[in-house]
Amino acid sequence: MTSLLLPGRQFWTWTFAGSLALIAALSLAPMSGGEPWFPHQDKLHHGLAYVYFYGLGWWALFYNRGFSGQRNLALLLLGYGILIELLQGATGYRSMEWLDLLANILGIGTGWLLVRAVAKQLFQRLAHR
């Protein structure tokens, strides 16, 4: 059974895949825009993106299996982050940065903590409505 609040699992899987594809495209496009508001602002963006990816990925791929797939999700996102950084370094107009990868890892860890602490209970309550 699906609802507006809880569409089918396939919807969330496609949303997760689409989010990864969108961020990959944006990450590989030439940079445009103004100056950042504060130093290393992009690291905050990296971390927040990976918190989002982790939460959405857990919901889309592993909700029905409990917490058994969290390590695989973390490894998938880590591999994705490494691939994006390598591709950025190969573009000639973007750069590979180790601090970006560190921010990604911190985002994955934060996402894992949030799922463990909050999301599991919240999503179970929503699912049983």
General description of the model:
The chain has 129 residues and is mainly alpha-helical. The protein has 4 helices and no strands. The longest helix has 30 residues. The chain is elongated and about 50 Å long.
| Global mean pLDDT | 84
Strand content: under 5%
What order do the SSEs take from the amino end to the carboxyl end, as H and E? HHHH
**How many β-strand stretches?**
0
The whole-angstrom Rg is 16 Å
| Terminal Cα span | 11 Å
Name the poorly predicted regions.
Answer: none
General form: elongated
Proportion of residues in helical segments:
over 70%
What can be said about the biggest beta sheet? none
The tally of helices reads 4
Structural class: mainly alpha
Task: Identify the notable features of this structure and list them briefly.
0% strand
Short description:
The protein has 129 residues and is mostly helical. It has helices at 9-28, 41-62, 70-91, 98-127.
Helices and strands, with pairings:
Blueprint: H1 9-28, H2 41-62, H3 70-91, H4 98-127
